[in-house]
Amino acid sequence: MTATSRKTNYDRRGKKKVVLFFPTPAFGHYRIELGLAIAVIAAPLEGKYELHLVDERVTPNYEQEVLTNLDDAVCVGISSITGYQIKRGIEMARKVKALNPEIPIVWGGYHPSLFPEQCCQSEACDIVCVGQGDVTFPEIVETLAAGKAPEGVLGSVYWTAEGIVSNPVRPLVNINDVMPAPYHLLDVNRAIMLNQTQNHESIRTIEFHSSQGCPGKCGYCADAQLYQRHWTGLDADRVVREVSHIVKSYNLDQVNFSDANFFANQNRVKAICEGFINSGLKIRWVASARPDTFHRYKPEVLKLIRESGCKRIIVGAESATEPVLQLISKGATAEDHLKSAQTCRDYGIGGTFTFITGFPHAPGTQPEETTEDLLNFIEKVKKISPEIRTKIFVFTPYPGTPLYDLSVKYGMPEPLSLEEWADYNPATLKESVWVTPEERKKIEKINGFYYPFAYPDRNMQMKLNNGGLKKIPYHVLHSLAQARARHHYYDMPFEWMLFKTFKKQTFEPIA
Ligand code: B12
Ligand code: SF4
Asked: Against a cut of 0.90, is the pTM above it?
């Protein structure tokens, strides 16, 4: 379809439905994290419109659920981060347009926010909501329902036959002015059930978003583009109230905070922990922390963190080599990583430390840090506490970040359309990044098999110590994995191949 043959009609008077689609975000096997984005943008429309929130991973007959609700719809909204989610979003948009070419399709989320005009050039997208959708999306819907294109709606960019129109940006909305996330609009129980069966989760867990933004300036992170390095947290009493509500409503054992930087404000964390303890809330919780922040927390707050149920913190350590930490503007040192690992051990809080290999380096030069360097450093972390989980990611440059610009400077080809971005994901980018396919395979083995067996966490320890005869193969694998980890020798991985043949499971920590 060419731009001029588009039939989008922004006059949606008399239409009563709003359809929101959350495509599968990741290629391969991932834990389902609730599509909170489509719920929060729908909250102000509840009661005024018939809402259809469809999550490709969770909603049975998701395609039918979108396509049978088009006739009376104001618009179809699609949420997307960069990569595979775009691919799935485009496929759905094409089906929508094939059935009803007039219906406006609105895209939002990190990726469309970075490339609004480029997205609107695609036949799959008519309107982009740039940045937060909490106020912008309801305004787009109300404008269309009043029969007009979103002219003047701050934070929106839209296609017209005469050209793309970019409205001024909307100033950041304070998260405390946003309505509570309407979990009841999502099929939460089914998402929990799917996670339990597909990921062998024994407990009931969902996500809660308690703050937005981050003051950090890590060179690989997309957060700064959306939130301009501005951190705002929900007030502690609101966090306690809303978390208590979802825990009761869905009979939860655990809440995962999906904040970019949960620990940014120590006073707030202290008040949240006290609130959990004083209200008698018995849950486990998990959140992300910066390595330079966590070990600097006061001992009395660290005790409260533990007592209030913090089971695990996720620490983005990324590198342990000074020039690389400088390159990526991490604002933390290898010493910080080790001190945060010690803090986890001393206060009985679990830790998952993530690392990234394959940061860009100029053509013809050697990398400042190899996977081998990271493995050496990880050994130091494991010496502090073998129970600390570690995971190595292969670097993928995300647009809107300084390291993406550097990668392009060093020769990485740049996708130039929404359709080209659809194939941009860590699993398919094998050719263009700074890690060889062999190296990737080795990392996959270490993450998913050798480290979990060499350094067993509590779950694995139970398998090693209980289970009658079944424990024998686990013990054999444990000894083999330990020997390999000690010598960094991962060639001829016969036990891994054997294990993969009989068991499809991966033990990769889900951060
Ligand atoms: C949950 C999460 C995931 C989930 C689900 C992804 C998703 N689409 O939500 C999972 C686990 C699958 C995931 C995976 C990955 N993620 Co992730 N993830 C997050 C996280 C922690 C929270 C997102 C969230 O739920 N926020 C809460 C909601 C309410 O906010 P929101 O999503 O920003 O939505 C607001 C606006 O964007 C907008 N909006 C969003 N959708 C829509 C739709 C419409 C129609 C409209 C109008 C508006 C709108 O309105 C919302 C309310 O204001 C963010 C970091 C963060 N704290 O934001 C990273 C983040 C989104 N992830 C990111 C990345 C890079 C990844 C990975 C690629 C990491 C990796 N290396 O493996 C993988 C993808 C895997 C793969 N193989 O492709 C980046 C995205 C960068 C980018 N350019 O897109 C982020 C921003 C982290 C970062 N700081 O860099 N992730
Ligand atoms: S600390 Fe985390 S959220 Fe903050 S800038 Fe760095 S990577 Fe992004």
From this structure: yes
